[in-house]
Sequence to fold (319 residues):
Amino acid sequence: MVLGLWLATTANRLDRLHVRTDAAWAALDAALARRAVVARAAAAAIRLDDVGADRLRAEAERAERTPREEREEAENRLSLQLAAVDRAKLPLALAAELLDAEHRVIIARRVHNDAVRDTLTQRRRRLVRWLKLAGTAKQPEYFEIVEPTLSSEPDGAPLPRPSARVLLLDAERRVLLFKGHDPIRPDARFWFTVGGGVEPGEDLRSAALREMAEETGVKLSDDALVGPVWRRRVAFSFDGRTYDGEEWFFVADLAGGDDEVRVDTSGFTELEARTVDGHKWWTVEELRATEETVYPVQLPSLLPGVLTTQWDGTVRTVR
Fold:
């Protein structure tokens, strides 16, 4: 009875593992198919040389129709072609979609291989093999393809960077902006809002409050922030590294304060101290008249709505 119970339990577990492996392969197959579609869109969207565009398109189409037995080789060829694409020439939305498609392939492949590993561990047990408890189920196989670099190396894939930013307003209805530069391009100056990257495990609102306190010395309670009112997706380079940025903008209105706001930048990190050249409170009129670079680009046209209209809970996409 004990042996029969063990056999039934093991056979049932093997069956569940095979179902899990099949489901994982279906998810991986879907992720690979999506990557091929985005790759063909990339070939059509940017001005590659004719040979390069044709090769990328051909490899994407070949990967889509290649049978499972030869799929690894085809997907590896597509990975190599995608690695040669200059992402800076892609439209921002397409670059973000390609990055997302590649990351989904990585996740799906790892989930699939984990399922294969667990299934093979059970199938390789002696009694399972001797008694053929796996039945007629086909032995699963690992799927190995080249993954894009996810490290912080300069030649790696763009790093995802969520950030929380603050439209800090004073009693005169001016917004605080910092002036900074890229360390490897010191001559190119630009203005940007208060805020920075979200740390692991941190929510957007907490990140916005922390960054504001560190960069300006202004400390507010959680309910003093409004938003996020805007969302901005942007691909950018800084200090030789490319980032896939997603920025969330909150509003902090200091109009009710009695004292003049004094900006304290003593909380800057070493990098911020080197790359931030100053700060200024800007009026809407000054933003509209300036020829200097200001981010987000739509700030001059959208800031008046923030100043005059109560937020309705909608997060608006800006650039």
Observations:
- The beta strands are 159-169, 175-182, 185-197, 225-238, 241-253, 276-282, 316-318.
- The CA atoms of residues 39 and 82 lie 7 Å apart.
- The first helix runs from residue 2 to 45.
